[in-house]
Amino acid sequence: MKKYKVGVIGATGMVGQRFLTLLENHPWFELTALAASARSAGRPYSEAIEGRWMMSTPIPAAALQMPVYDASADVEKIASMVDFVFCAVNMKKDEIRALEEAYAKAECPVMSNNSAHRATADVPMIIPEINACHDAVIPFQRKRLGTKRGFISVKSNCSLQSYVPAIHPLMDLGVTKVLACTYQAISGAGKTFQTFPEILDNVIPYIGGEEEKSEQEPMKIWGHVENGEIVRAQTPSITAQCLRVPVSDGHTAAVFASFEKKIELEEIISRWESYRGVPQELGLPSAPKQFLHYFREDNRPQATLDRNLEHGMAVSIGRLRPDTQYDIKFVCLSHNTLRGAAGGAVLMAELLCARGWLD
């Protein structure tokens, strides 16, 4: 496979930094362009990021002296340097929509970590193990945009990357309703304990917009492509409550689910342990060998023990048991900036490369 030239738009933010660490030594992707806001543009990355690097590993050596371009003003320049870009900018939604479409119309495919296009009917929102087939909508999006190569593909909200993968292998059993309470790490807000001291010894019971995303986005993920658009699923009904907790990385969810008929718990566990998706079948570089891991211990999963399982790309599940109001309840966990954000976008790009959309 050829080496794809890749850019990161929003390279100075937390997710942008995570992209840089994941692209270092990637077997398919070579980092060739960095972009951020106008205030960072024109400087080498080491200078633009000075005092703001939040990863536990050093800045990749290849990025240190790379020039930072203006994400909005240098679209054509960046598009000429890359085969596609990852986008993780901090802007208003209408500005993000315009920016991502500008890159797509410059014939530069966009792998977006942003929410601005998640509701757009012809933009696939892909969890590669679940709805790889939604790439079928890309030709219709290209027709709308008037492009030959350019298109936008998005990853879902990080809060649902734990419980949606856990529910998915059970969908053919007739899941009717789901309640999910998510306990979300501070890195999901782009924070560390140093920059977010008010979270210490505290739980914040509201995260703006998260509950709506957690309830609505799964319906697009479980939808189907029809007449050039993704038609949303009608079931199951989902209700969510999202809390910010004093954890550095890793979103945990307490999940309750009901079914059309009684299901044995061991069958559910067997489905989780045996589930494989397209990334596992294709052997994509970032794909976990086992997507879902079930723990039988009562005190698992835990963020400090399980968030980095399979390089942070697997989902951990535990505490499956019957429930009196719903049929079952369980706890699940995923790494929010790896599986949930940058890592999920890299895996999505690998999938689209393997299926020929980025050639």
From TrEMBL:
Keyword Membrane attached: no
Active site: C158, H251
Any Pfam family hit: Semialdhyde_dh
Keyword annotations: NADP, Oxidoreductase
EC number of the protein: 1.2.1.11
Any one GO MF annotation of this record: NADP binding
CDD domains, A to Z: ASADH_C_arch_fung_like, ScASADH_like_N
GO terms classed as biological process: methionine biosynthetic process; threonine biosynthetic process
Stored InterPro entries: ASADH-related, Asp_semi-ald_DH_pep-lack, NAD(P)-bd_dom_sf, Semialdehyde_DH_NAD-bd, Semialdhyde_DH_dimer_dom
Domain Semialdehyde dehydrogenase NAD-binding: 5-138
Family stated for the protein in its record: Belongs to the aspartate-semialdehyde dehydrogenase family.
Name used for this protein in its record: Aspartate-semialdehyde dehydrogenase
UniProt organism field: Yeguia hominis
Originating gene: asd
